[in-house]
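In response to reviewer comment 3 from the previous cycle, which asked for concrete evidence that the modeling workflow produces usable outputs, we include below a single protein chain processed end to end. The sequence was submitted unchanged, and the resulting structure tokens are shown without manual editing.
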Amino acid sequence: MNAYVAVDPPRLGQALHRVARALATYAPPEVQIVESPDDADLVVCHLIGWAHWEDLRSRMRGDQRYAVVQYCLRTTERPNADNWWWPWANADVVWSYYDLTRLMVGNFYHAPLGIDPAFVPCGCGKPYLVGTSGYVDGMEAISEWSDVCQATGRAQFHLGPHLGLPGSVTYANGLTDAQLAKAWGT
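The workflow returned the following structure tokens.
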């Protein structure tokens, strides 16, 4: 089987690219990773929002099989799981850290997105009280953690865009795995 696992469009966050690399790295031998969705029997759709889904779907063949990695739900343009019924019901499998099995019958794989087994923390200690990540503050509790850090006089590391949080916050984006290991510490 030919599978397209790349993040499309490629401008999406590094976490999605890490998942795509892991899917390619650990694909079973009978799965060949291809460079274009046109050459794929199965397209892996990394979904963070409805507009992203519509864009991907418009470029796929009508009969093309697909799998979904559902990253965002409550922070999307359609935050109710009922709105996602069609993409999920027609997918070969849906993988999410949300427990979607409670919402709908289907091929759902409920699991954390995990980390690369080659990822080795640097052993450099914890310079930050907490590490947060994300592009949307309201649903990720990023500002609440900022309040905690500010109240305790500790630093916060945020993987994502500059959100203008008060206190001692270090922002980073586009890090390599080694840089991320150093930032998170152990």
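The longest helix spans residues 14-25. We consider this sufficient to address the reviewer's concern, and the full set will be provided in the supplementary archive.
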